[in-house]
Amino acid sequence: MRILLLGSGGREHAIARALHLDPAVTALHVAPGNPGTQAFADNHVIDPSDPVAVTELAARLRPELVVIGPEAPLIAGVADALRRNGVLVFGPDRAAARIEGSKAFAKEVMAAADVPTADARVCTTDDQVNEALDVFGPPYVVKDDGLAAGKGVVVTEDRELAVRHARACGRVVIEDYLDGPEVSLFALSDGNTAVPLMPAQDFKRAYDGDEGPNTGGMGAYTPLPWAPEGLVDEVMATVVQPTIAELRRRETPYVGVLYAGLALTSKGVRVVEFNARFGDPETQVVLDRLATPLGGLLQSCAIGGLVPDQRLEWRPGAAVTVVVAAEGYPESPVKGDPITGLEEAAAVEGAYVLHAGTKVNEDGVLVANGGRVLNVVGTGPDLAAARDTAYEAVGRIRLRGSHHRTDIALKATRLG
Is the N or the C terminus of the chain less surrounded, counting Cβ atoms within 10 Å? Predict the structure, then answer.
């Protein structure tokens, strides 16, 4: 099977790695890719959010499947353009991808499908914002209605900060605060049927102890030893299947991965948000554990051929990923500094490094080229071993001014 994967981050490196390990995948292309994907795929330097450029590349490469990694190409209608040209795609079309592209639309779909989520109001004026903040009270939850790369949400006790964020965004969703730990669950969908992947937990705040600004994610782990028994079945029955059924009812069938960000509250499971693509960095640990070949699975979704009640195979043990971020991330990441020690990190048994924000400069030197620079994955028979492996590998990487959290999966290791 010939596959074209769109994207350039750590998530795409993880997807490319999993596709490379699928014996059925005979040729792998990534656009634009990164220095990590170059090791086992052909990179093509194009804008993955440009429908014309992507369809022209697909016409030239003639892939049997296009897999769309990031959210921006989905919202830009790249999947629509490819399908109009007869190309098989894993990824929702623009109408269905609004489940991520608009928080207000997601709330509308959840209300229609009776999916449990926080009470919310859509606000566009200062008066509406202040009224909503009065109704819900602190801690205030203010979400940019549009795409914000995982950084459009402010949760704060500071009312002035909440108001300033709302003004900066223009159109926001203000909602009730959800207590309890958060869980990410991905479900692969062919528009009718869905199959769940293994749940994971990520860490959004920049610094240890969940301090500092929100980021795109500083680390993740799976499995979750503390998750209640039957959680996945409950989420599939009350969240995923009703949402997919509602989108199908609206004649916008959802083909791709539906990412449910969940809060396990004192009142039960509640949806925090939906995303229309694999989460980053949770994908890095979830796909590490997946033993079922990924290429065939994604192709089944694209052709509408998922088997109801299909059971996936999983590798035993655990995986932990730690994000190495550039100096100044998330506010103003510093680019261009050399990265060394990757071979030493990969020499740690059970560890490997995924590129997230890197490039090779004109002198042939690998340098930082983004906020989240590397994802270091550690695996082992349990979470404690996987965590130790990840951090041993992180300790061998050198990037001036870089920072990473030291508490990824720490609490969970005490439970499993």
Answer: C
User: Do the Cβ atoms of 15 and 69 come closer than 8 Å?
Assistant: yes
The predicted model gives 27-33 an average pLDDT of 98
Q: Write out pLDDT tens, residues 183-202.
A: 999 999 999 999 999 999 99
CA 407 to chain centre: 20
Burial of residue 339, with CB atoms counted within 10 A of its CB: 0-12 exposed, 13-18 middle, 19 or more buried: buried
Q: Which residues of 363-399 are buried (b: 16+ CB within 10 A; e: fewer)?
A: eeebbbbbbbbbbbbbbbeebbbbbbbbbbbbebbeb
Helix, strand, coil share of the chain (percent; to 5): 35, 30, 40
Backbone φ/ψ region at 230: left (φ over 0), alpha (ψ -120 to 50), beta: left
Residues in CB range of 103: below 8 A, 6 or more apart? 143, 144, 145, 146, 172, 173, 273
Q: Which residues contact 84 (CB under 8 A, 6 or more apart)?
A: none
Write out the H or E segment, with its range, that includes residue 213. strand 211-214
Model confidence over 128-179: pLDDT tens digits?
999 999 999 999 999 999 876 555 888 899 999 999 999 999 999 999 999 9
In this predicted structure, the answer to whether residue 237 has a pLDDT above a threshold of 80 is yes
For residue 354, give both structure tokens.
């995924």
Domains with residue ranges and CATH for the chain: 2-93 (3.40.50.20), 119-175 (3.30.1490.20), 181-302 (3.30.470.20), 318-413 (3.90.600.10)
Question: Which residues have CB under 8 Å from 164's CB, separation 6+?
Answer: none
Kindly give, in sequence order, each residue whose CB lies less than 8 Å from that of residue 187, ignoring residues fewer than 6 positions away.
Answer: 194, 195, 196, 197, 236, 240, 257, 258, 260
* pLDDT, mean of residues 301-312: 91
| For helices 10-20 and 282-289, angle between their N-to-C axes, nearest 10 degrees | 10
CA atoms within 13 A on the CB side of 358: 27
396 near 374, Cβ under 8 Å?
Answer: no
Confidence of residue 369 (pLDDT cuts 50, 70, 90): very high
Residue 179 DSSP SS3: coil
Give the C-alpha separation, 370 to 341, whole Å.
18
> In the numeric block, which tokens belong to residue 288?
């590490």
